[in-house]
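FORM 7B: Structural annotation worksheet

SECTION A. Query
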Amino acid sequence: MKTLLIITSLTIIATGFLSRQFFKGKYIYPNENRANLDSVKIKSQIVTIVFWNVENLYDPYDDTTKMDDEFTSTGAKHWNWSKFRAKLNHVAKTLMAIGEWTPPAVVGLCEVENRYVLNKLIYETPLKPWKYKFIHYESPDLRGVDVAMLYRTDLFTVIASRSTVIRFPFDTLVQTREILYVKGILFNQDTLSLFINHWPSRRGGYLGSQPRRNYVASVLRKLIDSVQMHEPAANILVMGDFNDEPEDESLKKVLNAHSESVTGHDTLLYNLMGIRNKIRKEGTLKYRDQWSTFDQFVVSGALMNGSSGLKTGVKNVKIFRGSFLLEEDNTYFGEKLNRTYSGPKYHGGFSDHLPIRVDIKKSVR
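SECTION B. Predicted structure
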């Protein structure tokens, strides 16, 4: 009995040690544990999809074609290799924690600089064993930040992808991020169409910047209409940092994404975060004492209804509020984001946005 107690105690201590060391960037779970967790996820026929604005994932190089000077060793942020590697590990650890040690099938990202940082993320962090691949196109954004998508090849098969560049007819000098479209197959048989977005910021004020977000919303609406023209019951998942709330004009009127919790026609769009906000108000970013929900999932009615093999709903979406992503707010009380930078000062945190996740399951047809 004494020997058994000693062995049990040592096992508990070792398990706790491995968990702590993982969050120091030293260890990950053994291969056999990963396989077991993956098999459970696949057998339950549920996959997790994540969206996250990772806050300025730059490499330390100076790209002379972009305005990235501040994120270099000699720039205002004094960005260097040590900070860059810490940032990569923060992103990887968060994605691991969101999936409860099994990383998501698909991850939409924004504020990533280029293919180089994505390669570093999937090959030189604890994400490596899951053999992620990514889809990325260079956008004309002046700061050099783009949207991208990571996907696990064992859970998602890419059929096609394309990038839609945004050109404002009323403001030709402004250049912004593209809309990324990816079509693929989940569960080796069910098709899913994904749109990844990072809409123009509110710089210059809400009213002054609103026409740009409305215009991007109109472009996205046409892209979705094009998909539904050929496939009315298409499974469509739109994700992004929209820099607008679900009830703002760009999403509510231009995109025509509904925030009512009733399912309807397959071609209608439903804003899962808008519906969720009416049940449980939580935000994904904080400015002073105000939380906002700029990061959202919008789905087609077909995906809500389970009409074409896949199904999700408001109960399947959540904001990931990992304790390490937040810290005490001594100025405005409550919690605030554990950011990479606090103004010009390096803070060493994770991001100025919280990630969001949604679970997709097979529907019974």
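SECTION C. Observations
Residues 1-43 have pLDDT under 50 and may be disordered. Residues 321 and 354 are 7 Å apart (CA to CA).

SECTION D. Sign-off
Analyst initials: ____
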